[in-house]
Structures are given as C-alpha cells and as structure tokens.
Q: What sequence folds into this?
C-alpha cells in the first residue's frame, strides 16, 4: 500500500474531446483503478489547458472573450469523462486561481535561482498568424504556409529559461533513474534529445494578452507551455498548501503522448530542478490511435467522437477495446471493423459466453445455488498466473497485457467446462465441483477485469452471488483461490455483450 499520483496531459480547449483524448484518459482511469484495488491512496488528475494565442484567436473568431470561450469547452471534457466512467479525483483548469498561484511560485523560484533572464527573441513572424516560423516551415522559402504571404523578420523582448545549463544534470538524473520513462525506447529518445544539445527557450511573450503575467514584469505573459506543465503541481497545492503538496509530489506517472515528450521529459524536469522541486518519478509515453493511418486532427477531417462509439458498442465495449487493442506506447489503428471484431471475440464469445453458460448450468444442475470451489482445483494455478501477469503488466503501464493475462483465465475456464461437459452430467458432487471452480474463476476475473470494464465487472460479481462492490476488494488477498463462499443464488440475466453482426460494419 502506498500512494499513487497519475496525470493525463491537460487538453487544449481549441477542440472538443475526441478519441485521442479519450484513449489517454481511459488508460489513466484503468491504471488508477488497479491501484485502488491494491489499496493505494490514489490521486488521478486531468483537466484543460486554456491559455495562449490559439484560444485567444478562436475566441475572437467566435465573438467571445477567451474566458467565455474556455468556459464553454471545458465542461464538454468533464461531461465526456463522466460518460466514460472516468474516476478522476480532480479536474484542473489553467484559468483557476490555484493554478495562477502555482505558476507564479514556480516562475519566481526559477528566476531567483538565476535560470530565467531577459533576452531578445528574433525570428520569422507572420502578422496574420501572430506566430513565429522557422525557415523550413515556409512555403517557397519565404511565405507563411497559411497566409501565403511573405513573413517578416521580427524581434521581441522575451524571458528565457536557461535550459542549456541543465544538459548534464538531466543526463545524470536519467542515469540514476533508468526506469523513469516507459516504454524503454522512449527513454533512449529523450537521452538523444538531451545529448543533441539543449537551447534556452522563451517562456514569455509581449505580444500575447491571454495568459498569466510574469509576476515581476507584467508586460510579459507566460508562454503557454511553461504555464500548462505547472498544472501538475498546482493541483496538489504547490505554492499554497505545503502539507498537501508534500503528500502527493513527486507524481508517479505523467501519461503523455509521444508528440509532447520533449516538453515533458526535458523542459519540465529542468524547470523543476531549477526551482528545487523533485522531478517526476515516471512518464508513460503512449502512441497515437490513428484513424485510417493518420493522426486524428481537425484539419484531416477524421476526428472520431468517443461518445458516438459508446452509443454504438456500449461503454465497457469501448473502454475494453481501447485498452486491449493496442499495446501502450505503440501507435494503434482505429477501425470500426477492429472494434466489432474484438468485441465479439473477447467480450461476447469469451467473457459473456462464460458467464451465461455458468449461470445456465448452475440453474439446471445445482438448483440455481453456486457451489463452493475445491481448494485443489485445476484452475487454481491458472488464476494465480493471471494475477501475477496482470499485476506485472499494470506495474509497467501495459493495460493490453494485463487484460490478455485476465482473458487467459477466461479461456482456461471455458476450456475446463468443455473438457468436463457439466451440462451433460447428472447433478451431484462432480458437477458441483466443476461449477464451483468456474464460479471462483469468475469471481477472480471480475476483480482483475474491473479496472477496464468496471460496470460489467460489477454485473458479473452480482450475478454469481457476491455481495458488495467489486471495487471494494483488496489485492493481492482477493485474488487468492478459494474466496467464493458458495451457497449464493446465481442469476442468469440478459446477455452481457450481445453478439454484434459483422454486417453492421460500414
Ligand atoms: Zn500566417
């Protein structure tokens, strides 16, 4: 038992929640649910990133103030996470006062450490975009890629963070924390960035209005990345509630996408080191869920709304798919065909079918009352292995492997029934033993599957006659063979996951 603090990136409110946001948020939810089963004191944070030029522009275009604009979009994220059964403990918005206090505190700490200085930013600037470009982003070497007009050379006074001073410190830190970044190959990528040389980066803009002013020089507004990263500290009381901050920091895992690895694994720990704050304990870097081999984006026109998928395949069908289909860290390819295929194979045919046949046979051969499992059941070793492998996989932030281990136990239980064919046997001790084994396996399966499919797990739990909430079970004890009490009514109920026709496929 311990404490476990996990974060998602905060999502930028220039877009509505899409499948990519849902993916990371479901991974975090399942991971934290696993840790709740372990008895850990869990803090799961998500939220929205609401400052910066793009929000200011989007608000202008909509004829609203940036705050009004953000106030309309942020609740869409909160509502989406409720519908996806996300058990986050906090939802932070960067426009909240508690966040501003933390950003100011962190800025001052870095400034006092001598790592923030005033300099001049010079670069190629498009007035239409109000944005800097580097030469190789330009069309024909001279023009803004959006406005197709020549960009201008522009200079602006900016505050800079002295990232160049942190090369060796970061490398030393990663040397002494070799497991901090999962999967492994992402750690090598980060070391590569750092060894390639670090340049100081600008942390303020004078041209920008929508953001947090630099506390000692309010003509400047804090650059959105410095602002956004600090949310992970703001939410646990940094600069405001020292006791709370000390209880939760350092974070156990930042869940991030591979596109924001440089900000999170290079800039962020350097900022923290400068301020005398311990770096994160871990980063779990996910790939993208691609749609038709492309990253989802507004401009590609391939944005998938996760809420439409819930309507289509059910909440737990959707949650299971995103967790099981793609090993965390790799890119996945989202297709409706893949969604239906996995739903039918793992949920309808395996888990759903197991529960249905167990309830049917208990109804017909055991008078509807679940018999107790034998202590020397042939399924006991399979259950022990499922727990061991699932626990190791969650520990490495690999939900797909944890579910694979759990589904091995489902397959073993179905195979056990097929070998013994209790539906053909006369009622009596032999049938009772087989059904007791299957019920005990289902009890353990419900616990192990609950981080991924919480409401389904509760249904299985109740139908096999267990009382209370499956989420109140505590591992590892609850996964030990022999916990099914026997003597409870087993309920058949409706199909957990009605099989979907492949013709639904479009
Ligand atoms: Zn432009």
A:
């Amino acid at each position: 038992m311990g404490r476990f603090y996990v974060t998602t990136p905060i999502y930028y409110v220039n877009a509505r929640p899409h499948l990519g946001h849902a993916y990371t948020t479901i991974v975090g939810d399942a991971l934290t649910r696993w840790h709740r089963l372990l008895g850990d004191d869990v803090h799961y944070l998500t939220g929205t990133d609401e400052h910066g030029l793009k929000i200011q522009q989007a608000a202008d275009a909509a004829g609203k103030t940036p705050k009004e604009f953000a106030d309309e979009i942020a609740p869409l994220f909160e509502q989406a996470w409720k519908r996806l059964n996300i058990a986050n403990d906090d939802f932070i918005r960067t426009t909240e006062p508690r966040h501003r206090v933390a950003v100011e505190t962190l800025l001052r700490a870095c400034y006092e450490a001598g790592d923030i200085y005033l300099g001049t930013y010079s670069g190629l600037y498009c007035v239409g975009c109000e944005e800097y470009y580097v030469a190789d982003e330009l069309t024909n070497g001279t023009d803004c890629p959006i406005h197709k007009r020549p960009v201008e050379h522009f200079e602006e006074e900016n505050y800079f963070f002295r990232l160049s001073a942190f090369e060796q410190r970061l490398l030393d830190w990663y040397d002494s924390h070799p497991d901090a970044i999962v999967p492994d190959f992402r750690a090598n990528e980060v070391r590569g960035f750092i060894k390639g040389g670090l340049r100081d980066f600008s942390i303020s803009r004078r041209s920008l209005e929508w953001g947090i002013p630099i506390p000692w020089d309010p003509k400047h507004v804090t650059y959105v990345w410095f602002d956004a990263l600090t949310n992970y500290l703001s939410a646990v009381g940094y600069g405001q509630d020292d006791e709370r901050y000390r209880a939760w920091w350092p974070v156990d895992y930042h869940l991030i996408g591979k596109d924001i690895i440089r900000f999170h694994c290079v800039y962020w720990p350097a900022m923290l080191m400068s301020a005398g704050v311990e770096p994160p304990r871990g980063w779990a870097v996910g790939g993208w869920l691609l749609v038709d081999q492309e990253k989802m984006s507004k401009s590609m026109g391939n944005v998938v709304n996760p809420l439409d998928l819930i309507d289509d395949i059910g909440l737990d069908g959707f949650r299971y798919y995103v967790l099981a289909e793609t090993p965390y860290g790799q890119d996945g390819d989202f297709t409706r065909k893949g969604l239906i295929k996995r739903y039918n194979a793992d949920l309808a045919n395996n888990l759903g079918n197991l529960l249905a046949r167990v309830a049917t046979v208990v109804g017909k051969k055991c008078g509807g009352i679940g018999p107790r499992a034998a202590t020397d059941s042939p399924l006991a070793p399979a259950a022990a292995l499922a727990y061991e492998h699932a626990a190791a996989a969650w520990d490495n932030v690999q939900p797909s492997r944890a579910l694979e281990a759990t589904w091995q136990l489902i397959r073993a239980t179905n195979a056990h029934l097929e070998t013994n064919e209790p539906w053909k046997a006369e009622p009596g001790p032999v049938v009772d033993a087989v059904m007791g084994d299957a019920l005990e396996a289902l009890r353990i399966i419900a616990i192990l599957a609950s981080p991924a499919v919480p409401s389904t797990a509760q249904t299985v739990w109740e139908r096999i006659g267990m009382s209370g909430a499956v989420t109140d079970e505590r591992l590892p004890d609850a996964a030990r063979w022999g916990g099914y009490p026997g003597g409870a009514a087993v309920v058949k109920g409706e199909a957990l996951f009605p099989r979907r026709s492949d013709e639904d496929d479009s």
